[in-house]
Design brief:
mainly alpha, 4 helices
């Protein structure tokens, strides 16, 4: 199951640990959650999408402190979009890899003249790499 996704961040294929950088000798570990915790997470995510908030949270920054919570949305349009998205996910079947496109796209993009958008080529490279390995990618 050797890992080697990026030559910029070499990974020990035996242990899965990073060989370089600020997280050298660290490895991501799988996170196991119970069926109940999974359902609670799904309910919370749906609440965020459909209602724009998490029940009981009173912060004006419920979207990760990147800006004030939006209230200028059409609830029916959100409901239809959410349904479309969940139907799409169901049609995909089991997914092997979910790419965090924001983190992949902004990787090594924190320099003075960096573009103000993600590097789409980086995201495409990661997606194609996993597809070439026969993985189902989202």
């Amino acid at each position: 199951n050797g890992w080697n996704v990026s030559s910029a961040v070499p990974i020990d294929t035996e242990s899965g640990k990073l060989k370089d950088g600020c997280l050298q000798d660290c490895a991501l570990l799988p996170v196991s959650i119970s069926a109940r915790a999974w359902e609670e997470m799904m309910t919370m995510n749906e609440s965020i999408v459909l209602e724009g908030q998490v029940e009981g949270n009173t912060s004006e920054f419920q979207g990760g402190r990147k800006g004030k919570m939006r209230t200028d949305f059409d609830p029916q349009e959100r409901k239809e979009s959410w349904k479309h998205f969940t139907d799409f996910l169901e049609s995909m079947g089991p997914i092997d890899v979910v790419i965090d496109s924001a983190n992949v796209g902004y990787f090594k993009q924190n320099f003075a003249s960096a573009p103000k958008h993600v590097d789409y080529d980086q995201i495409d490279w990661v997606a194609r790499r996993f597809l070439a390995m026969g993985k189902r990618v989202l």
